[in-house]
Amino acid sequence: MEMTFILLAVIVILAYGVGTATGFGSSLIALTLGANLFSLDFLVPVIIPVNLAATTYIAVRHFSGIDWRIFLKRIVPLAMIGQPIGMLVFHVADMEGLKWAYGLFVLCLSIFEMRNTLRVSDGQLPKVSPWSGAWLIAGGFVQGLWVSGGPLVAYWAARNIRDKGIFRSTLSALWFLLNSILLVTYIISGSINAHTARVSAWLFIPLVASFFLGERLHNKLPEKSFRILVYAVLIFAGASIIVRSL
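RE: above sequence
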């Protein structure tokens, strides 16, 4: 077995360990680190089935933790407004040059919120502005445009969902829905083929190991420490978007 695939397995354990603990960020971490080993044209079709398996695990195992009222009445409708617009813009306009600006925005916003989280007492949440739903629309838009809308949705959730278990389960339900759409799209386009499917199937082995790591991390983290981890992942996400867009 080639060393690059062994390193990819290690990346999957790390990325999906964090994703299992927080409910988001796994694919962004995996793609950012994995891009040093493989081209994104190959890596993205490989990661999509792995990502779907991971989100399915969390959504099914922690099904009772999903806040269906927030999920069905707020997150899905607003995210679905933005996603088709982003997909349309992707096909008609060249927005790749602005990707660094999005990464910088996520980075600065996350640092600001990390600072606020460190200053407030346990159990407190920042005040939510009346236009907070715009984060979900923007998250759907960026997801359709660059497949990187997770940071904005996670930012909204961090300010609106107090319990870390509900946060993780509810976001995982959203990623299950979006990843299912992506899987069908990539299969139809031929991007997911027999070769990428074999690599994805092999990565399911380290993926199982990541579940044990992520569950232990999630259970041991206090609520405030959990939110600090969330913003730390967002800071990494913003920085990685900037680096990949240069």
